[in-house]
Specification:
This protein is an all-alpha fold and 399 residues long. Helices cover 78% and strands 0% of the residues. The protein is built from 20 helices and no strands. The chain has helices at residues 2-21, 26-37, 47-51, 53-71, 74-80, 82-86, 90-107, 111-121, 126-139, 147-173, 180-183, 185-213, 220-240, 249-262, 266-293, 298-325, 333-342, 348-353, 356-359, 365-394. Helix 12 (185-213) packs antiparallel against helix 13.
Length: 399
């Protein structure tokens, strides 16, 4: 395991630095590292690392979501209004619709199999999007209109919607019926996740304040450990309650950090942001290298031109969904274009669920996995490059 971790950090950082030198986002180098070191190319990563890969990716995601929550301003989200809500489900829903309409024509599969494919493709990648939105918030790009805040919140809730729909469509494809109760998990998961996070964040703020009044101030390093521990505990709560009631652990994490920042003095919040920023330096490498390692590039060869055509159609429908979500907002054409670009990348969810239909023996399993792999390899770099190359031209500098 130690050798594998050494390779993850050293090769991942090296290829990331090379990509930065040639003006590409460093996550591309990290994704390439994972593909090369992973089990489908050189197979240099220990099975013990790959066995806990999903947990390690979630841990890394938790770190950046805490940093995001500490940086968020609730007033900014309120100013965005209805668009913030629509961005959490409309783009993904339109992408699924695009697959349902066109995948049967291109691949000859059933409409329900096309819905399964659409659900796999439908999620935006918080791993790619969230760090960039946090960076834009720190740089004060588009923050007066709440653009990075809206995208950050929408990308976090988007995954909940898609995963619930994926589970529903998967059951239908196996011969089951539509379970209306399962669809209720979407709002329940969001509300309970936010509620859990708000309560935890408030209690943490009061605990730190109480220790300060007793002149037993908690060091910022210890605060960081406590906050991280509570975040991991909320993810555990999500797992404990699975099958009983739906709770979004990731939304709880971000809500906790937001409420903690609202109830803590600005200097403490700034120090916590710095601490989690330093943790992210290591977590980022682990996250993207392991996402790359989960990509089975053998399936790209099976995909063919039909996969590229289907991906182009699904992304077109997604863009329409984004633009409809922003209709009636105060955003100008440049800002709407940036939102479209920011909603392109796919990686984490596709790597996590892309192989599930194949593992469950569905006839479309190979095809769905091929589409998931192609979508990661094309859209993750495309979205990352697009955001990095355009934000300074499309978003206002609000400093």
């Amino acid at each position: 395991m130690l050798t594998s971790l050494a390779l993850v950090f050293l090769v991942g950082l090296s290829l990331g630095a090379i990509c930065q030198k040639i003006k590409l986002p460093k996550i591309i180098g990290m994704l390439i590292t994972g593909v090369i070191l992973g089990p489908y190319v050189l197979d240099l990563l220990d099975s013990s690392i790959l066995g806990i890969s999903s947990e390690l990716r979630r841990m890394a995601l938790v770190i950046i979501l805490i940093k995001a929550g500490l940086s968020l301003d609730l007033g900014d989200l309120k100013r965005v209004g209805h668009s913030a809500i629509l961005m959490s489900f409309l783009p993904a829903s339109f992408e699924i619709l695009g697959c349902v309409l066109f995948a049967p024509l291109i691949f000859g599969i059933s409409h329900i199999e096309a819905a399964v494919m659409g659900a796999v493709l439908g999620a935006v990648s918080p791993a790619v999007v969230v760090p960039r939105m946090v960076q834009l918030m720190e740089m004060k790009r588009g923050t007066n209109k709440g653009i990075p805040q809206m995208i950050l919140g929408g990308a976090s809730m988007d995954d909940i919607v898609v995963i619930v729909l994926f589970t529903t469509f998967l059951g239908m494809a196996q011969g089951g019926e539509v379970n209306a109760a399962a669809l209720l998990d979407i709002p329940v998961s969001i509300v309970l996740g936010i509620g859990l996070g708000v309560l935890t964040g408030f209690l943490l703020a009061k605990f730190f304040e109480w220790r300060f009044r007793k002149q037993e101030m908690v060091r910022n390093s210890n605060k960081t450990i406590i906050v991280l521990g509570m975040a991991f505990l909320m993810l555990a709560v999500e797992n404990w309650l699975e099958g009983t009631v739906a709770v979004s652990g990731l939304l709880a994490v971000m809500s906790m950090a937001l409420v903690l920042a609202m109830n803590t003095v600005p200097e403490v919040t700034r120090r916590l942001q710095e601490k989690f920023g330093k943790l992210w330096l290591a977590a980022e490498v682990v996250l993207f290298v392991l996402v790359g390692a989960a990509v089975d590039i053998r399936y790209t060869l099976q995909a063919g031109l039909g996969a590229l055509l289907m991906l182009a159609i699904s992304l077109t429908f997604r863009m329409i969904g984004v633009l409809l979500s922003l209709a009636g907002s105060k955003f100008n054409a440049k800002e709407k274009l940036f939102c479209v670009i920011a909603y392109l990348p796919k990686a984490t969810v596709q790597a996590a669920i892309g192989s599930v239909p194949l593992a469950m023996g569905l006839p479309c399993g190979d095809l769905v996995l091929s589409m998931a792999v192609v979508s990661i390899l094309i859209t993750a770099p495309l979205g990352a490059i697009g955001m990095d190359a355009t934000y300074h031209r499309l978003l206002t500098n609000d400093k």
